[in-house]
# Entry
Amino acid sequence: MATTQLSLVKVDVADGIATLTINRPDVLNNINFVVIHQLHQALLQAIADPAVQGIVLAGAGKVFVVGADIDFLIRNIEGDDIPRIIKYSEAGHALMNAIDDSPKPVVARVGGMALGGGLELALACDRIVAAQGTTFGFPETGLGIYPGFGGTQRSSRRVGVGLAKWLIFTAKSLAASEALKIGLIDQVVAADQLDDAVGRAAREPITAKQPVALSPEYAALAQFFASHRAADLRAGIVDTHGDAALARAMKLVANKGPIALAFAESIIERGSQRPLAEGLRMEIEHVTELFQTADALLGLQFRAKRQLGQPVFAGR
# Structure
């Protein structure tokens, strides 16, 4: 086995598989500028290495990746340096696109939580293989922002517009078994079988995703969120016709950032009708407007301070 240790990304090459591990367990492997740069660099080297047949992305410790670097976002909002956040977003998109465009199979090895930017990183891969007990979700609208590393676009292409809205509008965390049922991920195995399953997946040729057959419950959620406006769902004024699951889902939207919801709704809907590259650009185009809102700073500070409950968004 050949091992290379960058400051925040560890690279192991064995038996034709390059495993790139984000090594920031102390901060739950959150994605900062250095991680983006080093992971991108390691990815390109693995793609160029003729000895590498497949690539695995992993996170050190008990999680995969819990999201973006919130402290970085807060510092730059408070310092009125939104262009720095734009550069961060562009670098993240360049990394995700390089993963997506890799001519070699790229597999996400999810041994723990994959939230926000972590789920976006996984969605850029060809396959997502998870251990039992892991969780997936987009918490961003509960922080007054929206998924900004391709989450609005790759989720809708994986599970459809309705379920993408459900995931993003509610910020609900899904167990791996539930994520598998809607087609968000590709395989769930016991924790002690994860490495073997990931190794097999990294050696398989890249194939087109096949849509899953949704159960009546998920089909109803998909239809409900596809056919109603985010503002009405947040206000709780949509008729659920007595469906308790739909009522519970709508209730989860009530405390999310209204500006973030509106942006996410627009980007998901418009982007789903256009090529992926155009949809991804929409996420970046609205970064300045989004991070200049009071809601974004409020939500991010709330999370950074680990306050209990939910932030109360003013819609400005």
About this structure: The chain is about 50% helix and 15% strand.
